[in-house]
Design goal:
Cofactor: heme b
Catalytic activity: Fe(II)-heme o + 2 A + H2O = Fe(II)-heme a + 2 AH2
Structural class: mainly alpha
Radius of gyration: 28 Å
Shape: flat
Helix content: 55-70%
Strand content: under 5%
Number of domains: 2
Subunit structure: Interacts with CtaB.
Number of strands: 0
EC number: 1.17.99.9
Largest sheet: none
Protein name: Heme A synthase
Distance between the termini: 66 Å
């Protein structure tokens, strides 16, 4: 009878029991991950700052012709600089055996050698520091199981590129130690700088992604602006090519070849651009042709930037519009910096500012591309304010 009573239909006037069923908590997919993401972003931000610093020091090393002052690659023992007069004499003797000393710096004194030595040593030391910061951070987060799903290989990839960058750096320096060379090969310099910007790009992208919850990214992607995303992707690719071209210009001091604008000398096209044999060498070693290609790519980048800006300015998302506006503004600034650098024959302060401008433009393009993919949708209430 008791069992039959339990099965009787419940009256609509009967009180519901007080026992509550468990309900999914909003944001449960990201529960416990906020602190981990914050720590990861701090780690990535530190790596980003260090890579920007090494781009700056690397630029100063190139502009001061210091890159060949250390003629050996000792990843571990090279971290300790000369600490005695005898050690300095050994380093100086090694440099005196290099083609750069024989052909360009005959008679250099020890004080002058120390100035170029410290730039290259600082450059290499920063590289070691970046590798150490990555390794300690990656190992620490992995052991603490603080790496979000899907990010393990991504972070490992950054470390692999950092290691590869060290090898490419020595490959670059080694080219300048060959007979008849007084500087590194321009295409190897381009590979070295391009890899640095690739590392910066990955760090920036992961930093932006970790700033939003996964559930927010999934929802934001439904509002993605596909055409703006495509335009920003094209701008990113062309911008990267322009960075490589700038490295080719820097590698052969082509920025000092034609201190005129908008013409190159007396004409639009540089005179005698294909004198070297075989012909392909001109695209890497002829100062006039290399600078001309860099200029033309700059014009194309600005034109594409305006086209993408016109589309981005119609975005319904305020932060996306602001990001696109920032890209166009920096494009104009960077172009002006390039013109000034050429007109004044690439003085050190102008050239290094132009290089750092490329870093800022690169990051702004990536941020605008990210917001085109994952827009921050504003509520009606925030728009009214």
């Amino acid at each position: 009878m008791a069992k039959q009573a339990e099965k009787r239909p419940r009256s609509i006037f009967e009180e519901v029991g007080t026992t509550q069923k468990s309900v999914a908590t909003p944001g449960g997919i990201d529960r416990g991950r906020a602190e981990a993401r914050r720590g990861l972003r701090i780690w990535l931000g530190l790596l980003f700052a260090l890579v920007v610093a090494i781009v700056f020091v690397g630029g100063m090393t190139r502009l001061t012709d210091s890159g060949l002052s250390i003629t050996e690659w000792n990843p571990v023992s090279g971290a300790i600089p000369p600490l005695s007069a005898e050690a300095w004499e050994v380093e100086f003797a090694n440099y005196k055996a290099s083609p750069q000393y024989e052909l360009m710096n005959q008679g250099m004194e020890m004080d002058a050698f120390k100035r170029i030595f410290w730039w290259e040593w600082a450059h290499r030391q920063l590289g070691r520091t970046i590798g150490l910061v990555w390794a300690l951070g990656f190992a620490g987060f992995a052991l603490a199981r603080r790496v979000p799903p899907g990010y393990g290989l991504r972070f490992f990839g950054i470390g692999a590129l950092i290691g590869l960058q060290g090898a490419v750096g020595w490959w670059m320096v080694h080219s300048g130690l060959q007979e008849g060379m007084v500087t590194v090969a321009s295409y190897r310099l381009a590979a070295h700088l391009g890899l640095a910007f690739a590392i910066l790009g990955l760090i920036t992208w992961y930093f932006l992604r970790l700033g939003r919850r996964e559930v927010d990214l999934l929802q934001a992607r439904r509002s993605a602006e596909r055409k703006l995303w495509g335009g920003m992707t094209g701008l990113m690719h062309l911008g990267f090519v322009q960075i490589l071209l700038g490295a080719l210009v820097a590698g052969i001091d082509a920025g000092r070849a034609f201190p005129t604008w908008p013409l190159m000398g007396d004409g639009f096209f540089p005179p005698d651009p294909f004198q070297l044999e075989p012909v392909w060498r001109n695209f890497f070693e002829d100062p006039g042709l290399v600078q001309f290609i860099h200029r033309m790519a700059g014009y194309l980048l600005l034109i594409l930037g305006v086209v993408v800006w016109l589309r981005g300015s119609r975005s319904p998302h305020g932060k996306t519009r602001f990001a696109v506006n920032a890209v166009l503004a920096m494009l104009v600034v960077q172009m002006v910096l390039g013109i000034v650098t050429a007109l004044y024959s690439a003085p050190l302060h102008a050239a290094i500012t132009h290089q750092l401008g490329a870093v800022l433009l690169w990051v702004l393009i990536l941020r605008a591309r990210f917001l085109a993919r994952y827009p921050i949708v504003q509520s009606v209430r925030s728009l009214r304010k």
